[in-house]
Write a structure and sequence with these properties.
The chain is mainly alpha-helical and about 80 residues long. It has 3 helices and no strands. Helix 1 runs antiparallel to helix 2, helix 1 runs parallel beside helix 3 and helix 2 packs antiparallel against helix 3. The longest helix has about 35 residues.
């Protein structure tokens, strides 16, 4: 446990940022699962894909995932939708 005031503040700030990052990761996973479910049901439309792309891009912009990982995930989504069609 930190004794210095600035170290105590860092612990609080890190906890807040960790919570924010976990929420964004959860949102990303939910968007990808929604695409998977839509593809499995055969109802993958443009709105589902667009929402997934937006979530992926936001995660990359905030540093939750690397930009190359974001590109890879978007390519995977596109491939799933194309294979379904």
């Amino acid at each position: 446990m930190p004794n210095i005031k600035s170290a105590k503040k860092r612990v609080k700030v890190i906890a807040t940022k960790t919570l924010q990052n976990r929420m964004l990761k959860g949102k990303l996973k939910a968007a990808l699962k929604a695409v998977d479910a839509a593809v499995a049901a055969g109802t993958a439309d443009e709105a589902v894909v667009k929402a997934a792309y937006k979530t992926i891009d936001q995660s990359a912009a905030k540093g939750i995932i690397h930009k190359n990982q974001a590109a890879r995930k978007k390519a995977q989504v596109a491939a799933k939708v194309k294979a379904q069609a």
